[in-house]
Amino acid sequence: MRKTLKITISAVLTGLSLVYIVFMPTIDLGVWSFTPFSHIFLFIACFISPYTALMTYLAVLGGFIIKTGNYLTWLRAASHLFFIVFLVIYIKIFKLKTKKHIAIAAACTSVIHAGFEILAVIIGLAAGFEGNGTVYYILLVVGLGTMGHNLLDYFAGFFLYKVSKLERFVKSRTISQPNIEAADEKNIL
Predict the structure, then answer these.
(1) Mean pLDDT confidence for 151-157
(2) I need a labelling partner for 55 at 20 to 30 A (CA). Which of 18, 87, 88, 103 fits?
(3) Burial class (CB in 10 A: 0-12, 13-18, 19+), 85
(4) Are the CB atoms for 101 and 95 separated by under 8 Å?
């Protein structure tokens, strides 16, 4: 992929992430809240390149900082860096060529995402940031909620990425069509 195209795609995904997070409603359940499909652009960015993933990550973090004054939310958003680094490295090694690799990436990112969000909430509560919750509440709601939210966003992002890639393929085949007509004109002459 050309450098200019990567920068353009990074800018679009960064902008979409920021706008989406700031304006989408958030469901708040105490120490855990979620904005539906807020990770889609982040996952698409990971499928494109590490640079795109980093820029989109910063937009997601910035979006949550702009949207809320809740430090726990900021810590949870900052913890996304860990599953992003894992996914970028995993994609570099395995290329997501098989359904098995796709499923392993989804499962691992959801566990890493949930684990680091749980850790972020525990650190935030220990530091005295607002919010309260028992260990069971944190493990069940933050852990399982994040895993489910991650899996939904991962597969939605993967689907959108594949659909956009297919669209580019179709357009490239359509663009080459005039060459066939030019060849027919040569045969007529």
Answers:
(1) 95
(2) 103
(3) middle
(4) yes
